[in-house]
């Protein structure tokens, strides 16, 4: 495997946790018959799609001399390295060495291939280490599996550590300040008390004195992939469907960059579904991007050591809990050294 338990816990904590699924990029980034180089968990990978739509994810490294396979040619069911023409299929097996037919490289699986699934318009991949190469069970977020729920995927890349993006989602109180001029988050008190409520798959971080007014609760879920669910009240002008939900995930690109995935959803059917989707694309989507832009500007402006020079209070219990969970996971996944205290 490319990812290794020999990495320190600090490296794993900075670049992304292993032995779980992560979102990588939207499915639309790789058309049938196309390929794309991506970076995830600090490593370079090649997404490779056959003309029939079947998708593979390979380490972007030719097994011959290490040249990037992403510079090569798409040959339908395999990739030919640009440097010496070595051909590798979607499983990472060398199928041909044109410069020396019959070479002992042929028939050997020499390139790491990751399990992939496509969910809600996004590509998810399982990132294991050498001790956990087989993918863990993946249970999809209910809003992405329910046919009665209509969702839109919004994707962006931010120049922030991945954990800053996740911590932002476990911080409901920022909605009343950072997003106070939003069309959906202007209401409610600017003071609150919070509690953590445990669940079988994670925990809720929620206000104890306000519900259904602003960004009042969030649930962190571990179901083979880490994701959050939250709900934002919607005014009648936003159309049918009741509260507006968000499923959020984050892809650690490297130590300083993150791919953020937000599925905005509502439970609607029949003509109401069409109405909601029309209103979203023509009116609401632009407003939502304005809210995301506010998050991006603040997070990208924070220093890299922001989480080491803080004075936290009760509203930050959800963030503290998240850090402890992730630091413990990084420590368990490393045989090198424990994660530094933060």
TrEMBL record:
Its EC number is 1.14.13.-. Keywords: 2Fe-2S, Dioxygenase, Iron, Iron-sulfur, Metal-binding, Oxidoreductase. Pfam families: Rieske, VanA_C. Residues 21-125 form the Rieske domain. GO terms for molecular function: 2 iron, 2 sulfur cluster binding; dioxygenase activity; metal ion binding; monooxygenase activity; oxidoreductase activity, acting on paired donors, with incorporation or reduction of molecular oxygen. PANTHER family: 3-KETOSTEROID-9-ALPHA-MONOOXYGENASE, OXYGENASE COMPONENT (PTHR21266:SF60), IRON-SULFUR DOMAIN CONTAINING PROTEIN (PTHR21266). This is Aromatic ring-hydroxylating dioxygenase subunit alpha.
């Amino acid at each position: 495997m490319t990812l290794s338990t020999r990495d320190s816990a600090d490296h794993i904590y900075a670049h992304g946790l292993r032995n779980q699924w992560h979102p990588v990029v939207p499915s639309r980034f790789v058309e049938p018959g196309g390929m794309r180089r991506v970076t995830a968990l600090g490593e370079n990978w090649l997404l490779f799609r056959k003309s029939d739509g079947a998708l593979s994810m390979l380490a972007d490294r030719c097994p011959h001399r290490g040249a990037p396979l992403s510079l090569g040619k798409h040959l339908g069911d395999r990739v030919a390295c640009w440097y010496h023409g070595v051909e590798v299929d979607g499983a990472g097996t060398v199928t041909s060495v044109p410069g020396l037919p019959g070479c002992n490289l042929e028939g050997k699986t020499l390139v790491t291939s990751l399990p992939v699934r496509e969910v809600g318009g996004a590509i998810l991949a399982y990132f294991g280490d050498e001790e956990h190469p087989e993918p863990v069970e993946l249970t999809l977020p209910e809003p992405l599996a329910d046919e009665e729920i209509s969702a839109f995927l919004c994707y962006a890349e931010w120049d922030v550590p991945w954990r800053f993006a996740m911590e932002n989602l476990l911080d409901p109180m920022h909605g009343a300040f950072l997003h106070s001029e939003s069309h959906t988050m202007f209401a409610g008190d600017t003071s609150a008390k919070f509690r953590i409520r445990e669940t079988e798959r994670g925990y809720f971080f929620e206000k104890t004195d306000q519900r259904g007014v602003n960004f009042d609760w969030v649930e962190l879920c571990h179901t083979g992939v880490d994701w959050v669910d939250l709900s934002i009240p919607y005014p009648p002008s936003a159309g049918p469907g009741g509260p507006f939900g968000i499923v959020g995930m984050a892809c650690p690109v490297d130590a300083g960059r993150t791919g953020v995935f937000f599925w905005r959803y509502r439970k609607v059917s029949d003509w109401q579904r069409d109405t909601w989707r029309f209103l979203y694309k023509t009116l609401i989507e632009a407003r939502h991007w304005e809210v995301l832009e506010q998050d991006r500007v603040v997070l990208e402006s924070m220093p890299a050591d922001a989480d080491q020079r803080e004075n936290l209070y009760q509203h930050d219990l959800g963030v503290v809990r998240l850090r402890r969970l992730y630091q413990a996971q990084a420590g368990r996944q490393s045989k090198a050294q424990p994660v530094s205290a933060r």
